Automatic annotation (TrEMBL):
UniProt organism field: Marasmius crinis-equi
InterPro entries registered for this protein in UniProt: NAD(P)-bd_dom_sf (IPR036291), Sc_DH/Rdtase_CS (IPR020904), SDR_fam (IPR002347)
Name under which the protein is recorded: Retinal short-chain dehydrogenase/reductase
PROSITE patterns according to UniProt: ADH_SHORT
Keyword Acetylation found: no
Source lineage: Eukaryota, Fungi, Dikarya, Basidiomycota, Agaricomycotina
Length: 374
């Protein structure tokens, strides 16, 4: 009997995001395409030959697309065509992370602490995972504040302690979230209060607490962790989808308030809309596992979201981040004819993903014992 385990097939890690990443650096890259007509010219082709004309035209098209994309980003961030933003000094930052005791929030807190960033975690439960225990050196940089972020009195008290002990925060990452996974007819008033309190109201409360100092200094960064479910709805997720949809518009309104009324355009805002993340929050959902879904709608690792957030902070640009690639198409679904829209919904199997769902994160004391024991 062969004692060696079967190797993991290389195709297990192949998905559309990897394909797009390769294509963006080859067939969609102006730098790469530039050499195609040059190559044919030095091989003896004439400038009027179809291969040179076609490749040159494609190169010009790519340059136009990339120019529009880049100038749009510069316009949104009042950037310069010649000069990049000043270097982001990680050692001078005080970062507040809500929901930082587990999942993406915990990994983000630990990752930032490695960069010697002062981190303040707001959560109802402290970080108790083995991952954190093994990184004892990070305890000096990670500061935990017990706080129900849906309660203004607790948020205000936590804010006062943070300012007193660490200084005014320069980055606010609103990451806390909860999901009930119930039909509309099964949702209780307590469920709704928790969902909208944690997923939506908490963002307004933390902004009320920490944003004024950023506006005063015309400096800072607000990261809003939303969801692709805030773009397109699905069955048995009504409260979650609605709470996340509210965040998407809140993010847009905040940007215009900062630019037009507060006159604080240098306070950056980033909206993160991820798909299914491999965290406890959705660990008990029936996410499709067919080869088609793994390729088109892959589950993303928490580290991918963390990297995207850190890159956004480093870039110092306001932006919207869609992860993985298929999420980029979701804003356009509502413009499809109803039969195409329903076909896409059927293909995603999203309406059946929450059947048999068991709540793991954010369980309340008032929930039935059967739920809490699962």
């Amino acid at each position: 009997m062969d004692s060696h385990p079967d190797p993991t097939p290389i195709f297990d890690s192949l998905d559309i995001d990897l394909v797009i990443k390769v294509m963006s650096n080859t067939v969609f890259s102006p730098f790469f395409i530039f050499f195609i007509p040059v190559f044919y010219f030095f091989q003896g082709s004439k400038l009027t030959d179809p291969i040179i004309l076609a490749s040159a035209a494609y190169y010009v098209l790519l340059c136009v697309i990339w120019s529009v994309k880049w100038t749009s980003r510069l316009w949104r961030n009042q950037g310069s065509l010649l000069f990049a933003p000043p270097r982001f000094d990680w050692g001078e930052q005080v970062v507040v992370i809500t929901g930082g005791s587990s999942g993406v929030g915990e990994l983000l807190a630990n990752t930032l602490a490695v960069r010697n960033v002062t981190v303040a975690v707001l959560d109802i439960k402290p970080i108790v995972t083995e991952n954190c225990k093994s990184l004892s050196a990070l305890h000096d940089n990670i500061n935990y504040y017990k706080c129900d972020v849906s309660n203004w009195e607790e948020v205000e008290a936590a804010k006062n302690k943070i300012v007193e002990e660490l200084g005014h925060p320069t980055v606010l990452i609103n990451n806390a979230g909860v999901v009930q996974g119930k039909l509309i007819t099964d949702l209780t008033p307590q469920d709704l209060k928790q969902t909208f309190g944690v997923n939506t109201i908490s963002h307004f409360l933390t902004l009320k607490a920490f944003l004024p100092e950023m506006i005063k200094n015309n400096s800072g960064h607000v990261v809003t962790v939303s969801s692709c479910m805030g773009i397109s709805g699905t069955a048995q997720m009504t409260d979650y989808c609605a709470s996340k949809a509210a965040l998407n518009l809140m993010h847009e309104c905040l940007r215009y308030e900062l630019d037009k009324l507060h006159k604080a355009p240098s306070v950056r805002t980033t909206l993160v809309c991820p798909g299914h993340i491999d965290t406890p929050l959705f660990s008990k959902m029936n996410y499709p596992r067919t080869p088609f879904h793994k390729f088109i709608m892959p589950t993303i690792a928490p580290i991918a979201v963390v990297k995207a957030i850190i890159q956004a902070l480093d870039d110092q640009h306001s932006q919207t981040i869609y992860l993985p690639f298929y999420v980029n198409s979701m804003p356009y679904l509502q413009h499809l004819p109803s039969y195409f829209r329903d076909f896409v919904q059927w293909m995603s199997q999203g309406d059946y993903a929450m059947q048999g769902f068991q709540k793991v994160s954010g369980r309340r004391e008032d929930e039935p014992e059967s739920k809490k024991s699962q």
